Amino acid sequence: MMADTRGPRDAQPTLRDVAERAEVSAMTVSRVLRDDPKVAPATAARVRTVIAELGYRRNEMARSLRLGSGTGLVGLVVTNLANPFYSRLALGVDSVLAQHGLKSVIGNTGQDLDSERSLVQDLVARRVDGIIAVPADADQRHLAAAAAEGVPVVLASRPPSDFAADCVLVDDYGGARSATERLLAAGHRRIGFLGSPPTVYTSIERLRGYADALADAGIGAEPAYIRQGQQQTGEAARAASELLDLPEPPTALFCSNNRNTIGAFRAIRRAGTTTALAGFDDFELADALGLPLTIVAYDSDELGREAGRLLATRIRDGSVRSATRRTVVPTTLVHYGTSGSTAH
């Protein structure tokens, strides 16, 4: 067994420290602590040896959380506070948490995994009663570790990766496919795509819906018409301008979120083209742009409310239950034109 090389800042070993030293998952360590008979005896013995060597003590406060007996605080971890979607999400979360005597503490990660990891670890150390997170990346080991330590975790907008957790999603694939199909029905065959970073679940699913709609129409998704990674409206405007400057520019653009839609609108206005526009996420003044615009809309407040309900139930019933729950919020198409809007 390796010698203990932890420094002063690691004076209180975590469950993850035990997992790494014993070369098992954090969930396996948690099962050993619960005397789970399904853990192989040799593995359990190795984990207990490491626990003794490191002097690990499990967080009984976090492990026994119940409504009314914790700190009364819930961590809400989001990726971009500049996006109005997150303010609506937070309002929905707070409206439910308030009914249970809980309040949220919001942390912004800027879509940065290291920032998210540090924020989640800090929330766990501060004994929050639970965490609602919109993960920045598919690497969610820090969230898995928090859940394994007894902190209830609910994911919003993106599903859990390699660990079990409740989540509430949007019909990303179906909404993107429907919007692209509407553009195709209007006669467009060169349709561009503007999206978030390609590692983000929502961007992956919305690109998939867009590509499948094109494929069903006998059109391949053309890489030259796809731009991903834009998180701010300025970046989106530049990406849209690149597409509009192509020798054969797209006659329509589908945008995977509201920041990209707004940026694309600005690029279209500057270029003076008649490029059709469709996007995911409704936003304020979408009906006042003076440009035909198809929006994939959904109730972002309900997304937050459902996340709040899932977390409140998880805290009330205990962080460890046999089944996790997944809820999908439906989408609708809204068309904004010069004479108002219509929903389909």
TrEMBL record:
> What SMART domains does the database record attribute to this sequence?
HTH_LACI (SM00354)
> What are the protein's UniProt keywords?
DNA-binding, Transcription, Transcription regulation
Q: Where is the HTH lacI-type domain?
A: 13-67
Q: Which InterPro entries match?
A: HTH_LacI, Lambda_DNA-bd_dom_sf, Peripla_BP/Lac1_sug-bd_dom, Peripla_BP_I
Indicate whether Nucleotide-binding appears among the record's keywords.
no
Enumerate the Gene3D superfamilies for this protein.
3.40.50.2300, lambda repressor-like DNA-binding domains
Q: Name one GO molecular function term.
A: DNA binding
Q: Which PANTHER family match?
A: HTH-TYPE TRANSCRIPTIONAL REGULATOR GALS, LACI-RELATED TRANSCRIPTIONAL REPRESSOR
Q: What is this protein called?
A: LacI family DNA-binding transcriptional regulator
